[in-house]
Amino acid sequence: MASSIYIGLISGTSMDAIDCALVDFNDSEPNQLDFVTTEIPVDLREKLLFLCDNHNGQIPLLGEADVEFARQMAIAVDHILEENRLKASQIAAIGSHGQTIRHHPPGQNISTPYTIQIGDPNTLAELTGITTIADFRRRDMAAGGQGAPIVPAFHREVFASADHDRIILNIGGMANITVLTKLGEISGFDTGPGNVLMDYWIQKKQGHPYDRNGSWASRGEPSKELLNALLSDPYFSQPPPKSTGRELFNGKWLEEKLDSMSEFVTPEDIQASLLELSVTSIRDAILDHFPSGEIIVCGGGVHNNLLMETLAASMPDFDVMPSDKLGVMADSVEAVAFAWLAHNTLSHRAVDFREITGSSHPVIAGGIYWATHH
To answer: 146-157 burial string, b = 16+ CB within 10 Å, else e?
Structure first.
């Protein structure tokens, strides 16, 4: 028998307390069973008031970007439906990761860990007419996890092997690895920068969005002093579970390291050093787990020939290959993973991220935004 009892929560304009009502809808009229008022702590109230005062214009920007990004995702959905001559009614659900704009996980000297992904799922469900499942990371974080990376759970599903120890290496803006032992054990974490710093540097110096095939980096030589300075960041020696993002590894971080150099480093040598940073941090993380095995690479970094060659050369005891070799396109692994996560959510299946993110128990990740038309 489904419960007829609900809880209603509201905090009014005064923001002094949260009103909580316990209501039974079993009869024709609502029957209030209880009502409590919980005071809002002073420091939290001050934060809320500050946000409402909107000192720096970021809330309107956040609100607009949230909806605009969702609209853009809806265009992508319409496009793939059109290409495949499918109707919205033929799709069970969309699993939307959205766009991370802030990620502050536990263990970063922050009193309240949080992660924010925008791309309003209400807008997405409304525009597409397809049930949308979104906001996957925050449930893991609520259960004590890092909230990232969560795709390793999908890697376990499709890439685990009883014959080989495997590393699934995703090189996007950040790089992360999933460690899959042939005994069935799993762990996964962000190793540090993937393409983010190389992209930043070539955009700044040459105006290109990225270093195609690592051709600019290939004209330089890594600076030992710079590489040591970059690798000295505490993140690299921090034990997993751990996750990171642009909050740490960004242009400002790089510029501060460059300012500390005693020797002049040419722009192309800096680019070569940044490629070496990605390779070295990935290699060190992998060698902490296995001396040999298979490395299955996915993400945009798979198209950087120099990066792939340097990676393979730095780990000669590993067989390095793109995930295409195992039947999943390197570019689409993460998108497929969120479709899988959505399928789990809609099926009421909890996903176990414990060994990956450090969460306390498996969670049903993602909120469901039901389609109401089509």
So the answer is: bbbbbbbbbbbe
Which amino acid, one-letter code, is at 169?
L
Residues 368, 93: Cα–Cα separation, whole Å: 9
Q: What distance, in Å, lies between the first and last C-alpha atoms of the chain?
A: 31
Segment (H or E) for 314: helix 305-314
DSSP 3-state assignment of 13? coil
pLDDT (tens place) for every residue of the chain, 374 residues total: 467 888 888 887 777 789 888 888 887 668 888 898 898 888 888 888 787 775 666 888 888 999 999 999 999 999 999 999 999 999 999 999 999 988 999 987 788 999 999 999 999 999 999 999 999 999 999 999 999 999 999 999 999 999 999 999 999 999 999 999 999 999 999 999 999 999 999 999 999 989 999 999 999 999 999 999 999 999 999 999 999 988 899 999 999 999 999 999 999 999 999 999 999 999 999 999 999 999 999 999 999 999 999 999 999 999 999 999 998 889 999 999 999 999 999 999 999 999 999 999 999 999 999 998 65
**CATH, domain range 152-327:** 3.30.420.40
Any residues with CB less than 8 A from the CB of 252 and at least 6 apart, and which? none
Q: Which CATH superfamily hosts domain 57-147+357-369?
A: ATPase, nucleotide binding domain (3.30.420.40)
Bridge partners, 94 (sequence order): 132
φ/ψ (deg, to 5) at 174: -100, 165
Domain ranges across the chain: 5-48, 57-147+357-369, 152-327
Q: Could you tell me where the beta strands, DSSP code E, fall in the chain?
A: 5-10, 17-24, 31-39, 94-96, 99-104, 114-118, 132-134, 166-171, 174-180, 186-193, 293-298, 318-322, 367-369
The CB density around residue 212, as the number of other CB atoms within 10 Å, is: 13
CA distance 14 to 16: 5
- Check: CB of residue 80 under 8 Å from CB of residue 89: no
Phi-psi map region of 353: left, alpha, beta (phi>0 left; psi -120 to 50 alpha): alpha
Q: Quick one: 88 exposed, middle or buried, by C-beta within 10 A (0-12, 13-18, 19+)?
A: middle
